[in-house]
């Protein structure tokens, strides 16, 4: 029987102890918006965790959509993960260079959307790993292709139509992971949005508030619950998360998973989709 990852998060201590085990597959998921002049693939080539391969959310995506990094279909996800050397029996560990926010948490969510729960994110990511002087390497990894099976789980995804319906029904609480300035429309986004603000009735829980400010690791479950509750989120009622383009919303979904809300969906199109549609209202400060 395949051993499972112990949680949705693994520590640097756990991963360093299991590094090199045959069923561990490590994915460097680092992604940056082009405006930053940084490139996740180049950073991977510069240095990465031993044995890791690069997981590009703009490549493992619906490339026919003009929205950023939308989910691919199950067959495409399965094919591309197989080419990355990931099999159905592997324990998958994802990490990035921004504590999960660019875009390891999205990769974690994508695996779950396509039926794989044997996946965890490295808590603290590349920064904590290198800060502890744990091993890295520069040589690119050329994995042997494997067979990966993907089964779409629609309950973990929300579409524009569902979000629009929710405006009237209020059946799901909408939690926006962006920073407060982008949420209230006072700060421009890196994406060229024409409409500013947020989905009406959404509440703002910035994803960075869920992390230890110095260590970059998730707060303990009690503190996570308190942070959501401080914004009026009822943890016993349905919740959906959103953000600018479907990346940092997955950090909030992961945080909610850590406190027992394991089936929280993410609005895949996020503000990138909402703001462009004329019939989608916006609220701002």
Automatic annotation (TrEMBL):
It comes from Methylocystis bryophila. InterPro entries: Rhodanese-like_dom, Rhodanese-like_dom_sf, Thiosulphate_STrfase_CS, TST/MPST-like. One of its GO terms (cellular component) is cytoplasm. The gene is sseA. Keywords: Cytoplasm, Pyruvate, Repeat, Transferase. This is Sulfurtransferase. It comes from the Bacteria. Its main location: cytoplasm. Residues 20-138, 168-283 form the Rhodanese domain. SMART domains: RHOD. GO terms for molecular function: 3-mercaptopyruvate sulfurtransferase activity; thiosulfate-cyanide sulfurtransferase activity. The keyword Cytoplasm applies. It is found in: Cytoplasm. It catalyses: 2-oxo-3-sulfanylpropanoate + [thioredoxin]-dithiol = [thioredoxin]-disulfide + hydrogen sulfide + pyruvate + H(+).
């Amino acid at each position: 029987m395949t051993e499972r990852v112990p949680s949705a998060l693994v520590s640097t201590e756990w991963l360093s102890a299991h590094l090199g085990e045959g069923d561990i597959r490590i994915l460097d998921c680092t992604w940056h918006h082009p405006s930053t002049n940084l490139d996740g693939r180049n950073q991977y080539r510069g240095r990465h965790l031993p044995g890791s391969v690069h997981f590009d959310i703009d490549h493992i995506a619906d490339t026919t959509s003009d929205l950023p990094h939308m989910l691919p279909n199950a067959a495409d996800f399965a094919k591309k993960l197989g080419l990355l050397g990931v099999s159905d029996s592997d324990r998958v560990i994802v990490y990035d260079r921004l504590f999960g926010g660019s875009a390891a948490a999205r990769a974690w969510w994508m695996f779950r959307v396509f039926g794989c729960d044997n996946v965890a994110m490295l808590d603290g990511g590349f920064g904590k790993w290198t800060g502890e002087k744990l091993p890295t390497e520069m040589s690119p990894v050329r994995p042997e292709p494997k067979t990966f099976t993907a089964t779409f789980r629609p309950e973990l995804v929300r579409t524009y139509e569902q979000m629009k319906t929710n405006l009237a029904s209020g059946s799901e609480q909408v939690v926006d992971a962006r920073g407060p300035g982008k949420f209230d429309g006072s700060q421009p986004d890196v994406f060229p949005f024409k409409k500013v603000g947020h989905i009406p009735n959404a509440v703002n829980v910035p994803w960075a508030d869920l992390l230890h400010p110095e260590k970059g690791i998730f707060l303990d479950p009690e503190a996570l619950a308190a942070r959501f509750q401080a914004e009026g989120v009822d943890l016993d009622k349905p919740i959906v998360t959103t953000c600018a383009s479907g990346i940092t919303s997955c950090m909030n979904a992961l945080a909610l998973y850590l406190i027992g809300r394991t089936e929280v969906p993410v609005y895949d199109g996020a503000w990138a989709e909402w703001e462009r549609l004329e019939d989608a209202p916006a609220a701002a400060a």
